[in-house]
Inverse folding.
DNA sequence: CACAGTCGGTCTGGTCATCGAACCATACCC
DNA sequence: GGGTATGGTTCGATGACCAGACCGACTGTG
């Protein structure tokens, strides 16, 4: 399904937001980058997205100041979320929770988010019921829940165990 | 710009959510319906969306249990948000606020949301700083802010004055 | 150095969505 | 009957998306 990009004549801030993140695949890519999936090949393995579309979206997201592209070796690039992208985390989390509520998996939640210091699952608004704060991504860990459907790719395997948001999946385990 | 609809092999709840509301125009239509714009012709006037696309989206949103379609006269239809749609309000508001923060209009906010009982502008998370609650749409009023860019259509004119969410734009004024 | 493999893309051809404009059926008003 | 409002559908052209083939730069291996 194609998704257009511009909503030219809409004076609303929602239209502005959708011009940045409303295109097909963009929010899923953003989620993956927040999950620590930062490389072209890993994003492809995890999302089953056509190469050309992924290349196009990454370029658009760099241009929109959502991603920072930097080499980790000669000719090899990594994409990291900018402050603007991190600022979207509560919305992304809210949308995911909405999907979880209205399209539940039989066995339970597909993914669990916990406040790292408190070790408490976040509520629907992304807040920590224990300490009352709304943690930034850096303080949130995520792991597969009981409703999780396994995927074959190597990236998905890494995301089953608890892992802080933003930690590159290429790096070692949970980290405390 | 087209936006596809299905993300078949993604086991994530975010993909499920995007299959409901990820298509082009869908979130803008949902916002408009929450603003009280419930008729085909009014949506068209406010969004500048091709007729065929609007008809397709409305049908999809009814099928996804986001909208309830009911006649208000012989052969005339109105679309009203379901509970599922109302449940998405905090996300919609969060995305709008994100757009406002990262694409500000020079003169200030484009649209202001206030908690009706407290008459206090909502914070970025959709909460009321006065009473500490997160009001449902029925308790929120909205009006044009200083950064508002006027549009010529008759619907936009109605949305300039304060008005509770969900109140049909065809109905009379602010209502307290 | 030749060779294979990995990575991050680009190119191509076919399909599908979107766009803008025209058309249409019903109901109402006079 | 003629005119208008409403809620669509149909059409042709353009553009987005998709799957798969191709490619250039670099790395490691012998």
């Amino acid at each position: 399904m194609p998704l257009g990009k511009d909503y030219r004549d809409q004076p609303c801030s929602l239209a502005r937001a959708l011009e940045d993140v409303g295109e097909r695949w963009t929010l899923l890519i953003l989620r993956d980058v927040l999950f620590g999936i930062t490389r072209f090949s890993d994003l492809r393995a995890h999302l089953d997205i056509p190469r050309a579309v992924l290349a196009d979206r990454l370029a658009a997201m760099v241009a929109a100041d959502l991603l920072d592209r930097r080499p980790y070796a000669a000719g090899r690039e990594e994409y990291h979320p900018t402050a603007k992208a991190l600022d979207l985390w509560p919305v992304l989390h809210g949308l995911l929770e909405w999907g979880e509520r209205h399209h539940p998996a039989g066995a339970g939640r597909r993914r669990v988010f916990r406040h790292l210091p408190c070790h408490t699952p976040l509520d629907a608004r992304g807040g920590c019921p224990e300490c009352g704060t709304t943690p930034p991504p850096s303080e949130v860990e995520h792991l597969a829940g009981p409703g999780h459907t396994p995927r074959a790719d190597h990236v998905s395997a890494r995301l089953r165990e608890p892992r802080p948001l933003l930690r590159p999946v290429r790096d070692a385990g949970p980290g405390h």
Observations:
- Residues 1-4, 24, 49-53, 56, 73-76 of chain A lie near DNA strand D (CB under 10 Å from a C1').
